[in-house]
């Protein structure tokens, strides 16, 4: 039986606090060269679904920063990736 290895990463909030989260998937759109990470804190919503977060990864400063997703077009493309991911599970 294969063991699933969960990749973790630490994120630092604007207030300086550090939190460890679980990476679900990281990907890049080749045409825009924008990199994204989908992660979870393993929180559940009122329906029992695990909450996931999506951030744009900015590596320009040498220290990766997680930024919000700005445009509706980006969100639509990210949702397509997440739909494909959910079909494969």
Topology:
Elements: E1 7-12, E2 18-29, E3 34-44, E4 50-58, E5 65-67, H1 72-88
Antiparallel strand pairs: 1-2, 2-3, 3-4, 4-5
If you had to describe this structure to a student in words, what would you say it looks like?
The chain is α+β, with helices and mostly antiparallel strands and 89 residues long. It has one domain (7-88). It has one helix and five strands. It has one helix spanning 72-88, and strands at residues 7-12, 18-29, 34-44, 50-58, 65-67. A five-stranded antiparallel beta sheet has the order 1-2-3-4-5, with no helix packed on it. Strand 1 (7-12) and strand 2 form a beta hairpin. The longest helix is centred in the last third of the chain and has 17 residues, at 72-88. The two termini are 17 Å apart.
Identify the overall geometry: globular
**Low-pLDDT sequence parts:** none
Strand order of the largest sheet: 1-2-3-4-5
The number of domains? 1
Mean pLDDT score, rounded?
A: 88
Helix/strand-derived category reads alpha+beta
Distance between the termini: 17 Å
Helix content: 10-25%
The biggest sheet amounts to: 5 strands, antiparallel
Beta-strand share of residues: over 45%
What is the radius of gyration? 14 Å
Query: Could you give the order of the helices and strands?
Result: EEEEEH
Extended strand count: 5
Number of DSSP helices?
Answer: 1
